[in-house]
Amino acid sequence: MSLKRFHRLWAFLFAALLGWRLVAVRRAALVPDDALAACTIHLVWLAPDHDFWEQDFLVDVLSRTGHTVAVQRQHPDQVSCRTRPPITNGGSSGSGECAFTIVVARWISLVEGLPPEFKNGSCAYGIVHPSDESLGESPSPLYDLPGMRFVLRQYALAPGHAPEARVRALGLGYKRGFWEGAAGRTAEATPASDRRLTWSFAGTLHHEERQRAVEAFRGLEPHQADTTSHFDAPDGLSTAAYRDTLLASKFVLCPLGHVNLDTFRLYEALEAGAIPVAMRVNPLLSAYWNYSGPYWPLVFRTPDIPFVVHDSWEAAAAEVQRALAAPRQLEARRRQVLAMWQHHKEEAAAFVGQHMAAALTPFPA
Predict the structure, then answer these.
(1) Boundaries of every domain in the chain
(2) pLDDT in tens, 107-159
(3) How far apart are CA 213 and CA 200, in angstroms?
(4) C-beta of residue 271 within 8 angstroms of C-beta of residue 187
(5) Predicted structure pTM score
(6) Hey, how many other C-beta atoms are within 10 angstroms of the C-beta on 261?
(7) CA 75, CA 50: separation in Å to the nearest integer?
(8) 202 CA to centre of own chain
(9) Fewest beta carbons within 10 Å, which of 229, 250, 254, 350?
(10) What region holds the RXYLT1 C-terminal domain (predicted)?
(11) Helix, strand or coil for residue 218?
(12) What architecture is domain 7-176+344-360?
């Protein structure tokens, strides 16, 4: 067997195996326990004066539990516990429809403003903890409040710094409105051969890391680099134009954020079916906890990360150049990356569904 045929066979088998795992997890997540089939997840944004950037992504993930998701925006002191176990055939173990409460605390300190029922154990609920880019709020003692069943964090922590059974890295996700006006265009339906850009980047060039990334890739054409003055600045691309750029890109440069390796850009590239290009080590984990191992397995819970990950932008550019020379293998890899992303969302939904089922198991009549 030739080396080329071996590589093609390996790519096919890898994609088939990952696809099989994805179907298995999807079945587990989308077919909840019969007692929870009619549940509503009340997703409560605790900072109503600020934009709920992650709303669409969280609804995407939580809907995969098989439950309905209802979004509310309330100040912490106005939130009521909506968690209710289902009504059983032998009698009522709850009042009203089956429901579960998940609060989204833009700052974890907002949890302190919740009513007493969220602190004394009389309410079972979950927490989504975004916006902890500098890791200054982690790990928080508020994760251990009575009644708190699980925490979904945007940013991953170093191993051993939070109980894995209850605290899970979800990733940053994609911006609200990302798919609005897409007119049927999807990540799956846009193969690498139909993507006109070799690579793209959109954002600020506010530090040397990002400048090095763009410079290392500058010779790979065609490309598109759109710079802006600051995060979500009005002089940047519109959400629709940004999404369309990602859909037109084979690769997307995903350098360091302001202080953390993790950025929305990487997940938006995944959502659009492009292949992210990122560095391996998160400098914050190295500085805070002396952890210099690979970062992305902490988020995606697998050592086999199929997108481009290196310790230097020059090495990453060299790998991309090699990948471009083998179009069939490139498309197979793109599909592996997309399958990993969907698998990640399904696994996160299964995690939430399991904790919901444990919290809402009906009491004996």
Answers:
(1) 7-176+344-360, 192-339
(2) 999 999 999 999 999 999 999 999 899 998 887 899 999 999 999 999 999 99
(3) 11
(4) yes
(5) 0.88
(6) 24
(7) 11
(8) 19
(9) 229
(10) 237-344
(11) coil
(12) 3-Layer(aba) Sandwich (3.40)
